[in-house]
Structure formats: C-alpha cells, structure tokens
C-alpha cells in the first residue's frame, strides 16, 4: 500500500505487514514487521515518537537500507569505494516502482554515479517476503563494492531477544542452537566458497520465550551457495537488526561503468505461532516458490558407495541393482569410481568418460539392466574438481584456483576448478551435456568435496569476482542442463550437507543431508535441517550396522524409521544383508511408499515426551507419526505422545491396530506408541481421519 505523500509503503502478506518509509533525510526506515496492518494503521506509525538523534554519542534509529554514511557506526549493509577513495554514501530517494506485485525503491548517490534499487516481493498464500539489492554504475569509472547485503531486516523491540542458528561440521551438520543475543554484532557465515557445514544461511529471532507452538518468531534465509555472512546487531536498548548478504571480508567486487550487480534473494518471515509454525511456513514457501518440481514425491533410491567404494565392476553394480530392485527401490545411483582412471581418489577427476576396464562397452549395458529392473538410473559427478593426476589437469593446469608463488593445497588429492572462468564453465557444461545426451541418465548426484584454498585468478581482471562468479556460473550450468534435459533430476551434495540453501534448491530436487548416516545422530541433524528446509528435499539413507562412521549398532527398524522422516534411501551393502534383513527391508520400503506423500508434502510437527522424540506429518486425512527412543530408565513405561494440529471433534483410526482415537484425546493426553522395551525402539504409526 503506497502513500506517496508520506513516502511510506507496506508490503503485505496474508498475515503480516512489513512497513518502510523514507524520512526527511532520504533514509529508508523500517517501521513495522509483524501482524498485518490496515492502511490507516500503517500511516499511524509515522506519529510514533522517534528515538533521539545523538550524534557521535550514538543513535537508535535502525535503517532498512543500511548504507555507510555519517554517524553510522554500527553494521552497514551497503558499502562501496569510489575511484577517488570516497567511501561514504549520501543517497537521495528517486522513485518507487510498483509492478507485478513487486515494490522497488530507487535511490541515487547525491554526487557519484551510483544507483541503488532495493526490491520487495511477496507471494499469494505465503508470509515470506523476498528481497534483493541492485547496484548500477551509471558512470564510466569503476566502483568497488565492499558489501552489498540483500536485505537488512528491522526486528521490533524485544526485552530478551534470542538467536536461533544452525551450526556444525562435516558429519554433524545443521545442529540447532538457541542463545541470548549479546550486545553488539554477532556474525555467522562462510568463507569457504560454499554454503558450508559449519553454518547455514538461516537465522531466527524471538523474544526469548517462544516455544514450538507459541510465540512470535522472525527469521531470514539467504538463497546463496557461495560465501556469505549474516550479521545480527543488538543495540543498547535491545533493538535488533539482521543483515544478510553474499560475500565475505575482505573481498570486494569491481563494478565497471554501465554494469549492474544484483544480489541473491534474502527471504524474510514473521510468524506468530512458534518455531514449528515458522518451519512449516518455510516448507510451504519452498514447495510453492523454490523447488523446480514441487509436487513430485521423490523416489526411493539405492546408492552404491558404501557397498563398493572404488572396488567394483559393471557386473558388481548389476548385482547390487538386482537386490535393490527386489527391496523395492526405484532409483539406482552408481557413485564414485566409474570414470577415467578413477580406481582411487588419487586420479581421474575431470575426465568424465567411462573407465574402459570397468565399462568396456560404455555405460549402456548397466543402464539397460537397471531400467529392465523397473528402476531409474543415476550417476555421481564432481564437476567443480580435478585431480592433478588427470588428463584435464595435464592439459590445463591454469584452470584451477591458484596464486603466484604459493603451493596448490590438495584435499583428497584434488583441486578446485576456476568455474568463474567462462572457458572452464563452458567446458564443464559441454562434458556433462555430452554425458547426458549419450546415455539414458535419469538422475545426477552433483558432489563438491572440498572448500576453496589459494583462491586466486592470476590473469583475471578482477580476481575477487571468483567468489561471486563461481556460484553464478554453477547456477547457469545447472539451469542449462535442466532446460536441455527436462526429465533429469539432480541431487546437491557437498561432502554431505555442505551446500544446502534456497539458491541451490531452485535448481535441484533434493540434497544430501550428511555423510553421517548413523540413525541416532541423524535425528538431531534432521531436526535442525527441518527448521527451514522441507522433508521433500532431505535425503536420508539406511546403511549398515555397525555404522561405518560411528560404529554404533542400531536395529534395522530404527534405522529405517529415522530415514523415513525425509526422502528414504538405502545405502548399505545389500550383498551381505541376511535374507531376513532383506525381507524386513522390503516391508519397510513398502511402508514408506504408503506414507511418503504425507512426509514429503505434508505439514510437520515435532513431538517429544520424556525420552521419546518424534515427528508428525499431516496431509489430508492421513497423519503419520514416526517416533524413536534410545533407552528408557528404571523400567518406567513410555509416556503417551501428544499430537498436534488434529481436529478435536474428529476420530482417527490407527491402521496398525484398528483402534479408533478421538482427536481431542490425542491432543490432550497422547497416543500410545507400543514401543519395544529394548534400547533403540521406534515406531511408524498411520492414522486415518474417519468421515
């Protein structure tokens, strides 16, 4: 709702309003982010008293467009350096443009040739607001962009603001923590060239009292798969602003004359119903406005890596495919080791042609065999990497990131290709397009197993651009491959969950959550993941016991039930599974096929009662409960598990037992799970709402 005479605008969603206004000094102020306001109520915000302006000593107003300028001693979301060394900005409001539901506010520097556009977009049916920033150099001399955050969100004043974030490392991704926000600036991010295992570009703010089911929550997620940073700044009176953008210090990008730099999307969300409500809103947004094929349920895949690693033949893969098909798997994925001289991790990366010893007749016979078993065929690639022992590296040693007079540090005997170079990007697209055109490949697992080091581009005109253009070119390759091969489906992997964000999810169908497949660890990893990303994209494998990483021994049912909370897959060595485990696995796969529409496309509710944790998924008349308990103490019986979101006046039939439950009783008292008294007990329960 524009009010041009007051220079105030609201961005409305079904339940919220985000209100901004340009003040008398042409500064863009964030006035409200919360429950939806009427036009009259939004205008009344201008009558509220302002915090006093105390130059040098300090100032309280928080700006929606935080440009570096006089008296701005806190975090600045927009910083540049002009050719004469000037760093401060003096922005003047130019115009507001409203079209197709978007609001764009245009500013220009008072003296220098820089135009700044901040854009807001909302979608029908969603409370998520998308924001980007665009900088255009309207002159001829280059401008260095030191920082260009996509959005700065002004959070209402809170007494004890709390920060939720996802931290971790390899094998322990998306660990959820909630901490009181300290005064000053809190910065999280990645300098690794990828989203990273250590942090994920999402944060949430609440008043310190929100629960899963109650309380206001403000959150933001950055749709970017390269380096990034989110700054949370708490002022002396408790005010909070959150600024999110690509890049990292001290990198700057040169903006040439006539060039425009558009930042990635930073999406923001306010909800009033607690953390579970916020998570569900993010899931709905991903399904409606991010994923390329949101209505598809993902097939149950089998991946060969943990069974064979590098030691296999085409016949070995066929035997695995036979056993996977017998279990009910629908997609067979051959992992690393099929190409070039790739008999270990020391050679072959970059040479994307079938190993002639393992596949003398190419991939065709294996693909035909897999398809004959009623499964789709998938393959593993790691296009952004190269082994020094490869034909590609011997031909183009300058194609990797490197710096003069510095070593080229290897991880897993591999280096990172300079995908920012147009010739490298074109080569990678051509090789992958050739692979897909010559073979009936249905699915690609796109891996990226190491961060950047010695990230230099000695002959590049603007070497720092690599941190931006690598990701942009990655996106462009994925977009081209999807356009040319519309039936192709893609999984994003980066040593597990090292590249999970809404940027990569706009171009892929699922992500590999973690290389840690231990079922108990996965419950915690998946809980953090689900704060923002839906089960529809969360790859979850059932592997062998003891687990290859943790050596923990866990029953087969527990492993399956943990993986059923996402996109179920099997990754164990089926050649050594007993007949009993094969048969039970087939039963559990069939169970998942009955519930996966609810899991992948339904509404998620986290559950907990004592030592029992679980998740509930609702879709239509179907409710699915997955519950786990590691151990119980003193032989105490398991408590009933209270369910959420059910119609209290409806009745629900337990498909295991035929027992009929009242919705009001399930909510107030709970559901009896019937867990085995032994350690690592679990259950999958289907409830059907009766007419």
UniProtKB/TrEMBL annotation:
Similarity remark: Belongs to the glycosyl hydrolase.
Pfam families reported in the protein's UniProt record: Glyco_hydro_36C (PF16874), Glyco_hydro_36N (PF16875), Melibiase (PF02065)
GO biological process: carbohydrate catabolic process
Boundaries of every Glycosyl hydrolase family 36 N-terminal domain copy: 28-255
Active site, per annotation: 447 (nucleophile), 515 (proton donor)
Keywords of the record: Glycosidase, Hydrolase
GO molecular function: alpha-galactosidase activity
Reaction(s) this enzyme catalyzes, per UniProt: Hydrolysis of terminal, non-reducing alpha-D-galactose residues in alpha-D-galactosides, including galactose oligosaccharides, galactomannans and galactolipids
Origin superkingdom: Bacteria
Regions crossing the membrane: none
Domain Glycosyl hydrolase family 36 C-terminal: from-to ranges: 619-687
SUPFAM superfamilies: (Trans)glycosidases
EC number per UniProt: 3.2.1.22
Upper lineage: Bacteria, Bacillati, Actinomycetota, Actinomycetes, Glycomycetales
Name of the protein: Alpha-galactosidase
Organism whose genome encodes this protein: Glycomyces algeriensis
UniProt keyword Acyltransferase, yes or no: no
Annotated substrate binding sites: 170, 335-336, 412, 445-449, 493, 515
